[in-house]
Specification:
With 437 residues, the protein is α/β, with parallel strands linked by helices. The protein folds into two domains: 5-33 and 294-420, Lyase, Ornithine Decarboxylase, Chain A, domain 1, CATH 2.40.37.10; 35-292, Alanine racemase (TIM Barrel, Alpha-Beta Barrel). The protein is 30% helix and 26% strand. The chain has twelve helices and 23 strands. The protein has helices at 19-26, 35-51, 68-76, 86-94, 111-120, 130-143, 182-191, 213-233, 259-276, 290-293, 327-331, 420-424; strands at 5-6, 12-14, 17-18, 30-34, 56-61, 80-83, 102-104, 124-127, 148-154, 157-160, 163-166, 176-177, 197-202, 239-241, 283-286, 297-309, 313-318, 337-339, 349-354, 363-370, 378-382, 402-407, 410-415. Strands 4, 16, 17, 18, 19, 20, 21, 22 and 23 form a nine-stranded mixed β-sheet that branches. An eight-stranded parallel β-barrel has the order 5-6-7-8-9-13-14-15, surrounded by six helices. A three-stranded antiparallel β-sheet has the order 1-2-3. It is globular, with a radius of gyration of 24 Å. The N and C termini lie far apart (56 Å). Bound molecules: ligand LLP. The site of ligand LLP has 20 residues, from helix 10 and helix 11. Ligand LLP is lined by residues 61, 64, 82, 105, 204, 207-208, 243-246, 287-291, 327, 331, 386-387.
């Protein structure tokens, strides 16, 4: 995984920093990010567009992992930024991210959030529904400002890993149906609004996708519609955003194609479609989240108690769980792990890695072969960089872990560990505490 290596001591090293030292210095659980790997992923996306000579924006979908430092890293790498809430927008602005490269998503943006976005002068709002379009038009006329918009359409394709489904009637909470008249109506409203500037269309067909087929089908369906619109209204998009969703390898069961191959396939298809209908090739935007940061993140835990269910299973508990990684409980997501202090030692037992939350479903990995773990050994779980910290929670009032960035032998704390005080920070007492004598 990335710059992860085994050092002379047999310890797992990331970004040339010994993870055992990281655990000692920053405590556990700890999210460790391999910064060089994030940079490499970002550059590979950008270079693919540059090599093929396409005007593009690669927007990091910050829902995968949004913190001030991560947003600043995205800025350093020349990425644009996809935000989906006032909180993510606030994070981006607090990090000093160039507002003109922020794209605002979401199916229920509030008036306040839209106002904040327009006030900040963000790059575009991805309009999700008629209520939002109406609010935007009103905001623009009352403030005298204008805003770029993309219309999010649902092309009736849902893709996950190796499967894609043609859903026909677009049953999703997101976007304007492409084939049920909604997109047509939204197009006319936006074109005739006299305030919003319609740049083009957006679609996102799913996440953790291993094949290009779904993207190509979506592009074809969109172009069939664009062809109608060109003839009827003379509309041609300046921008086509095909979303994110490029899959990564969590375990050896996963075999995604390299991320740049999706981009090449998308570019070729869009060029072919535009050509076929005599249209100018638009700017192509994408929004990868997981594929930029997923395998760059590793979580370090300390092992704790064991429980053996005779003849059935050996449970090995760690000092985190569904509070820092809810994906196994929520999606039956699978992960790989090693003992960070003895990476090359032979497996001696098969254990089930349990979290510490009061819930039976709080399991991180079912049945993984490992060397015999002592108490307080460091377990490193790989590929936790996307939707790990961002979906972390305080279930059982467990403080959220710290986050460190490692690069070139240096470790930098970028999110502090929460404390017990943080757990009661927003609580208001029913009565002042009575001190006992
Ligand atoms: N663009 C839009 C409009 C999206 O809805 C998403 C993800 C992305 C981009 C980024 O997708 P990515 O490249 O990261 O696959 N919590 C789930 C994933 C939810 C994804 C939601 N939308 C998980 O942990 O697997």
């Amino acid at each position: 995984h990335g710059t992860a290596k085994v050092n002379q001591k047999g310890h797992l090293e990331i970004g040339s920093v010994d993870t055992i030292k990281l655990a000692e210095e920053f405590g556990t659980p700890l999210y460790v990010y391999d910064v060089a790997l994030i940079r490499e992923r970002a550059r590979s996306f950008k270079e693919t567009f540059e090599t093929l000579g396409v005007n593009a924006q690669v927007a990091y979908a910050s829902k995968a992992f949004s913190t001030v430092a991560m947003v600043q890293l995205a800025a350093e790498e020349g990425l644009s930024l996809d935000v989906v809430s006032g909180g993510e927008l606030y994070t981006a602005l607090a990090a000093g991210f160039p507002a003109g490269k922020i794209h605002f998503h979401g199916n229920n943006k509030s008036l306040q959030e839209l106002d904040m976005a327009i006030e900040a002068g963000i790059g575009c709002v991805v309009v999700d529904n008629f209520d939002e379009l109406e609010m935007l038009v009103e905001l623009c006329s009352s403030t005298g400002k204008s805003v770029n918009v993309l219309l999010r359409v649902t092309p009736g394709i849902e893709a996950h890993t190796h499967d894609y489904i043609l859903t026909g009637q677009e049953d999703s909470k997101f976007g304007f149906g492409l084939e049920n008249g909604q997109a047509d109506k939204a197009l006319l409203e936006a074109m005739n609004s006299g305030s919003v500037r319609l740049l083009g269309l957006h679609c996102h067909i799913g996440s953790q996708i291993f094949e290009t087929t779904g993207f190509l089908l979506a592009a074809r369906k969109i172009y069939a519609k664009l062809n109608e619109w060109k003839k009827l209204y003379g509309f041609e998009p300046k921008v086509l955003n095909l979303g994110g969703g490029f899959g990564i390898r969590y375990t050896e069961e996963d075999n995604p194609i390299p991320a740049s191959r999706y981009v090449v396939a998308i570019i070729e298809e869009v060029r072919e479609q535009a050509d076929q209908y005599g249209m100018v090739v638009p700017e192509i935007w994408i929004e990868p989240g997981r594929s930029l940061v997923g395998d760059a993140g590793t979580t370090l835990y300390r092992t704790g108690s064991r429980k053996e269910v005779p003849d059935i299973r050996q449970y090995l508990a760690v000092d985190g769980g569904m509070s820092d990684n809810i994906r196994p409980a929520l999606y039956q997501a699978k992960y790989e792990a090693v003992l960070a202090g003895r990476v090359l030692a032979k497996p001696e037992e098969t254990v089930a890695i349990a979290g510490k939350c009061c819930e039976s479903g709080d399991m991180l990995i079912w049945d993984i072969p490992l060397p015999k773990a002592e108490k307080a050994d460091i377990l490193a779980v790989f590929c936790t960089g996307a939707y790990g910290y961002s979906m972390a929670n305080n279930y059982n009032r467990i403080p959220r872990p710290a986050v460190v960035f490692v690069e070139n032998g240096e470790a930098k704390l970028v999110v502090k560990r929460e404390t017990f005080e943080d757990m009661v920070r927003l609580d208001l007492p029913l009565k002042e505490r009575v001190k006992s004598k």
